[in-house]
Amino acid sequence: MKSAWEAVAALATGFATTFKHLFRKPITEEYPEYKRPLPERTRAVIILTRDPDGGERCVACYLCSATCPVSCISMQSAEREDGRRYASWFRINFARCIYCGLCEQACPTSAIQLTPYFETCERDILKLVYEKEDLLVDHGGKDNEYNFYKYAGVVTKVGDKGAHIKEAEPVDIKSNLP
Amino acid sequence: MPNIVIDDREIEVPAGTKVIDAARQLDIMIPRFCYHVALGSVGACRVCAVKFVEGPFKGVQMSCMIDAKDGMVVSTTDEEAVEFRKYVIECLMLHHPHDCPVCDEGGHCLLQDMTISGGHGIRRYLGSKRTYRDQYLGPLVQHEMNRCIHCYRCSRFYQEFAGYRDLGVMQSANRVFFGRYEDGILESPFTGNLSDICPTGVYTDKPSRFIGRRWDYERSPSLCINCSLGCHTVASARYRQLVRQEARYSEEVNGYFICDRGRYGFFYASHEKRPRRALVEGEEVAYHQAIDTVREKLAQISGSAGPEAIACLSSERSSLETQAMLKRVCQNKNWSGPLFFMEQSLAEKVKTATARLEPGLTVSLRELEQADFILAVGADPINEAPMLALAMRQAQRFGGRVVVIDPRPIFLPFDFQHLPVRLHEVDLYLSLMIKAAVDRETATELGPSAAEFYQTIPTLETAAVPLQEQIATLAQELRGCQRPVIVCGTEVVPQTTPALAADQVLLLKAMDKQTGLFYLMPGANTFGASLLSGDDGSFSTTLESIEKGKIKALIVTERDLFWKYQNKQRLERIIEKLDLLVVLDYVDSETAQKSDVFFPVSSLYEAGGVFINQEGRVQVAPKVYLGGTPIKQNSGGGHPPRVYGVGIPGSEPRPAWQVVVEIGNGELPPDEETAFATTRKWLAEGNPVFANLPPIDQFPDDGVRLGPALDVGSRFSLDWQTERHPKRNSDGLELILVDWTFGTEELSIYSPHLRQVEKEPCLSMHTSDAVRLGLSSGDKVAIRFDGGRVEASLCVAENMASGVIVMPRHRLLEWQKIKELPRIVRFEEIEKVSV
To answer: What is this model's ipTM?
Structure first.
């Protein structure tokens, strides 16, 4: 008899728990009806950002493509009229990308950044090959301050010789005066 | 021979070896910026500091400044030395402009490597950085002075090593500046080396500016085929485009450096207009269709007019494989040829040179640097083979005397003596000088023919009076020197000169001197061509046969007929007359455009090849990349096309020797190794000298120097009695066609960057002739040749022979109107053009 009571009690406890949960707020998030805001540092689709002055940050230094463990980044550097180096084309093959974030770590100008946006599924795999126009955004991403050309001592529209941060006036090579 | 211990390892080095070099022999790489093996030490950068534990010096010292001495014990890893080097790097980085991402040196930058290996990562200095204004240095070198660490390598190379003065050091103390006095194109033809030796990014390669990083390039050792010296290079390709070429160290040939013509002469390989499809009557067809057409037409001609009606013309810039295959096909098919030279006289001179390069006489370019007396005859080093001038400069720097006997206005970047005599006097003056230096007894020791030869050389009194004393003094110097070298050109000189130069070297050798003989030849593989070319037939006889209708088909491999032939109209006529002109080439030459059937072939960088330089050194250039149209060209400049195919676009060109074999219905060898092995075997049957060649993948770095390649023939055979002494032309000037450093070489003219450094073509004549004609420097003159007027500006020079007019075979001059050579330009044929 005792064991029969025990069985009933066990069943009742179980059902009681289930019944209690009928009145609790559900913890399942209904994707895609509900999209959880992801932390800023989440690593998904890659963007090319701009500096605070609106210029393209990427100088096509090839460090991201060099560090990429799956070789999904390729580009070609070129020179603008004012001497600024930029990527004449920039391609990321997201079908191959593993979102490891090494490119972001390697980038000396904060240009390439990973974003939380991950919904990139495509039926046609070629659509996952992003060109520069698909990657370039018009904001600074996670870094809204850094402008590489304000520090680097090369002449561009951003600054002449001696006009960059912590630079002295150019040496006058035709005068021996101290 | 001092014994020295470095990092607990002992080594014996020759006296005078610097510690940094002794360490290198133990494979210990001591950091360095200013020290360079070719430039020596100055102790400017302080980064090669090591700790001297025992011996004559103690403590931290610069390893590049101290000679290895007995009993020295050196530690490169001592804590104090490591600490010292770390601070040196930090000091050198104080003013660094923080621009590695946009610097082309990044990735192969010595400063970057040393900074990282020294552990300097965080900038501690709070002051502001020194800056400099950059200069425009021409189309080849980009200047960015902010990156300078003041190692002085550039000015030492430019001034001390190469002998030019327009780039150097200015200012003092912390403001030392390297550059020119003002913006302008660098004068030296060796400027590309600045980007090689600069340990950071002050001088970077402008043609490959912002193209890519070193780690992305397909890099391979290669050879330069822009002159006959065969300098070693490293070629880099990216995205199916050849983008950069650098000097590769060679113990025997070019040392650490190369000239700008070689370095930037590669642009033909990825040129936009490079033909990449086979053409039949101007229509693009598939390769096999073109082969079938050619075979069919050749069979027809062979059937109707006999196989001799088909002639083959090879080239000096073809690889040995192509030359040999063409010869083999010709022999199998009984076709005429192959011919390798446009002029019979050049063929003979080159063959004499090849034959007279006996072992024991031949010197390499690097050995020539050791010479203490260089006598250049009919050679214009800067224009014909610039690296020879650099080697001569080294000889001169270390006390050697350089004498040039040549009618042209010779410029060399150092002090030398020039005997500006006319072409037919070159032999005389060479012999006069040797006769004055060599005793009669010595000549007699060499046998009766030598004695007679010596006897018949005219006496010094035959020389022009102003030159007599100069020759006597120089002969005295020559007598006292130990390692004289005679450099002999083969292009402009009279028929007799190459043999005479060899005879004179033999006379000098009999004086117990370590003599050397160095010939210059017109093309990269002229030596190979001279070994393979038969005795009979020059191209001029072939031309006659075509005109008479005896030859109906012409197969031309890798040659532009128009490039070095003085009669354009005649060539156009004979091309009209030919039933079939087959051209194999990798450039869109005029001949290629006029061909009936055209085959695109791969360039040196895609096919590789074996080349024999002018001293008989057989060298191998491996493949650099697979070929194909550069991505930049088939993407229209934007991102690469998004079509994915199986083949490489534009990769139809194949090695010329393969096309040759297929035209001759031969069977293609399965791969290059077999191809070279069979070629070598076949070559060795014809000339045993080839039997010693190793398999193509086992060639040593510096190649293999062929032994005596042809029968030497008769020595001391020049008969002075019949040696003609043409009277001075009182009514005209002797025309000399010459090469220039830039603008006259067939392949390098495709380089857009070298076109910018080309000088405007000008005719040169001696002041006295110009005065007689009432002309002065800068005047525009026209010469009436048989084929039409040729206009050019005039350069009047004091340092050249009178009675000659020198004309460059420049791409901008229509010199092909000359028609007949040799040519005396009569005074009335020269007129001033009023502007």
So the answer is: 0.89
